[in-house]
Specification:
The protein is α/β, with parallel strands linked by helices and 247 residues long. The longest helix is centred in the first third of the chain and has 18 residues. Strands 1-7-8-6-5-2-3-4 form an eight-stranded mixed sheet, with helices on both faces. It contains nine helices and eight strands. The protein starts with 9 loop residues before the first strand and ends with a strand. It has one domain: 3-Layer(aba) Sandwich (Rossmann fold). The structure holds zinc ion. Keywords: Zinc.
Length: 247
């Protein structure tokens, strides 16, 4: 019997200069796609991060008022490791982010400020595949980001943004969803992997609460395991995968 053919992922589009990554929480990008971001900034591309929340509900033993500034600091350090210096927070409330026009407007405003050709977000679907349930914040932010890529280009959807001096930006060509169970494209994770490990390790407080394992062993195992599994669909090269929605 012959092996079933595994559909191979396409390389990510390369003709862009600026990307904006929009996710719900500190660590969302580090768990999924920091290796790709490191490779892109190495090539001289600009990447900025926008986080809907400060992840203040993420650590059981830390009250939100203490947790928010700590996670913000860890997120900024973690972004710096992969060459990202602009990190913004939209201050929606962690755990109860609501999909709706307020969220779409905040993300559309960020897209107009940064004027990216590529927008990155995280899994907007109900599950991670199979029966692994996704969290409501990820679903809300992922969906709102896919919608806001179009909202940002329409002068009449959120006219208050134009009043604030944010002119429409209709230049988003792709929205790439990390952590999707239906990926279409991939980036070679090899050149950025060491920095991806160090980037995730910057979320030290969160990781120390999460696992009994040595943080570096845990982080390296998690990231390389995922990248190697994804590589089966990318010519055997460890990969970061995306589901790309072209516009
Ligand atoms: Zn998250």
């Amino acid at each position: 019997m012959t092996e079933p053919t595994i559909t191979q992922l396409e390389p990510m589009p390369g003709d862009w200069r600026r990307a904006l990554a929009v996710v719900a929480h500190p660590d969302d990008l580090e768990y999924g796609c920091a290796a790709a971001i490191a490779a892109w900034t190495d090539e001289g591309r600009e990447v900025a991060y926008v986080l809907a929340t400060r992840g203040e509900a993420g650590i059981d033993t830390l009250a939100p008022a203490e947790c928010a500034p700590l996670r913000e600091r860890e997120q900024r350090a973690s972004a710096a490791v992969v060459g990202v210096s602009e990190v913004e927070f939209l201050d929606h409330r962690d755990g109860v982010v609501e999909y709706g026009t307020a969220l779409r407007r905040d993300i559309a405003a960020a897209i107009r400020r940064h004027r990216p050709e590529l927008v990155i977000t995280m899994n907007h679907r109900d599950t991670w595949g199979g029966v692994a349930w996704n969290t409501p914040d990820h679903v809300a932010v992922g969906r709102a980001t896919l919608d806001a890529a179009a909202d940002a280009g329409n002068r009449w959807i959120f006219p208050e943004l134009t009043d604030r001096g944010l002119e429409p930006w209709n230049g988003v060509r792709w929205v790439a969803v990390a952590g999707s169970s239906s990926p279409t494209h991939a980036v070679d994770a090899t050149p950025g992997m060491e920095r991806a490990v160090r980037s995730l390790l910057e979320h030290r407080t969160y990781i120390e609460v999460l696992t009994e394992e040595d943080p570096e062993t845990y982080v390296r195992g998690f990231l390389t395991g995922f990248a190697e599994a994804a590589g089966e669909r990318f010519g055997g090269r460890p990969a970061v995968t995306f589901e790309v929605f072209a516009r």
